[in-house]
Specification:
The protein has 133 residues and is mainly α. The chain contains four helices and no strands. Helix 2 (46-72) runs parallel beside helix 4 (107-127).
């Protein structure tokens, strides 16, 4: 059985991306909790809350893509996008079970934003200086 030239071992690439996606979700929750602390101190409108949640999603997706690219050490864009797909699927599942909000009209824009941020994180993760992560 030959390994693919693009990913090497596909199971390792998928498990790296999925593990990074779980880390990405944890970072997203942490950023939301931090922003929630600030929102408790001020009176925020729905638009500000939406911007804060989008910011948390971008930070989480970027961090997941960065870790995925850094661990896999090649194909940063592809690994970041794969991580972004996993992040988006996790967000869809969680929002379906807890918020019943999967029929939102902004779903395609969140997908594009998640893929862009995680892809950028993957590129920067691959090109970062070598160091243990």
């Amino acid at each position: 059985m030959r390994n693919s030239r693009l990913f090497g071992n596909k199971k390792v690439a998928a498990s790296t991306a999925f593990g990074s996606a779980l880390l990405s979700c944890a970072v997203t929750v942490a950023v939301i909790m931090l922003l929630g602390f600030f929102v408790a101190k001020i009176d925020a409108t729905d638009m500000i809350l939406s911007a804060m949640s989008t910011f948390a999603l971008c930070v989480g997706a970027f961090s997941g893509g960065y870790v995925s690219g850094k661990k896999h050490r090649r194909n940063g864009l592809i690994m970041g996008i794969l991580c972004g797909v996993f992040v988006f699927l996790i967000i869809i599942l969680v929002s379906h079970f807890f918020a019943k909000a999967t029929q939102s009209i902004s779903l395609p824009s969140k997908l594009i934003l998640t893929l862009m941020c995680s892809g950028l994180g993957g590129i920067l993760g691959v090109n970062a200086k070598n160091g243990k992560l």
